[in-house]
Amino acid sequence: MTETLAGRNQVREALRAGRPLNKILLAPHLEGQAIGEIINLARERGVPLQRVNRAALEKLAGHHHQGVVALAAAREYADLEDLLARAGEAGEPPFLIMLDRVEDPHNLGAILRSAEAVGAHGVIIPRRRGVGLTAAVARAAVGAQEYVPVARVTNLARTLEELKGKGLWAIGAAGDAGQEAFNADFTVPLVLVLGSEGRGLSPLVRSRCDFTVHLPMRGRINSLNVATAATVLMYEVLRQRGQARP
């Protein structure tokens, strides 16, 4: 479950200790030395800050918030290296999933559940413009979040370049891609990159992909929910890798 931390000292100490935080909420026009320190620490650690009215703070934390509330992650985030190490320990080529601008907690939870089912080595999400590990995500994942490490990074495009430098292929999912997913080679070390339904991949992230693939659509709709598309693609990875085993 997401834990709510209320009050200036509690939030400041959580930041000092490096505790994973999804977001810090501040009352409007709140200033002072302690607030300035919280803001600086949050920026150093890449924790999003948001100004909200006091009614919203009181709804989360009652009347003792001192104008500051932090939303702690439902579980700790992993480092990117942890995901790669997990693949190495299993003796398997890395299989990672990266989510670009996915904001619906139910989608992230469903993707974590599918990732666990197919044996993916981890999921990568952005610090901003995307949902974190909230209580709603945990409920949708139905326990899978305990088994699939999630890394939260500052810059998805830069992370893709880093992973490509380590030998992974960046394969993006896009409805207008020229190559059908079932004709692609998913046996290589890879990071599968998916964007939100409606907006898809951001241009910068898409430009960092080695190539993009699409799922065939024979009906009248032109796109799938991102969690559904992710599940289909993940199982294609599993199918191909199962056939590739001696």
From TrEMBL:
Coiled coil: none annotated. Pfam families: SpoU_methylase (PF00588), SpoU_sub_bind (PF08032). It comes from Moorella thermoacetica (strain ATCC 39073 / JCM 9320). InterPro entries: Alpha/beta_knot_MTases, Ribosomal_eL30-like_sf, rRNA_MeTrfase_TrmH, SpoU_MeTrfase, SpoU_subst-bd, tRNA_m1G_MTases_N. Belongs to the class IV-like SAM-binding methyltransferase superfamily. RNA methyltransferase TrmH family. GO terms for molecular function: RNA binding; RNA methyltransferase activity. GO terms for cellular component: cytosol. GO terms for biological process: methylation; RNA processing. Residues 4-78 form the RNA 2-O ribose methyltransferase substrate binding domain. It comes from the Bacteria. This is RNA methyltransferase TrmH, group 3. Keywords: Methyltransferase, Transferase.
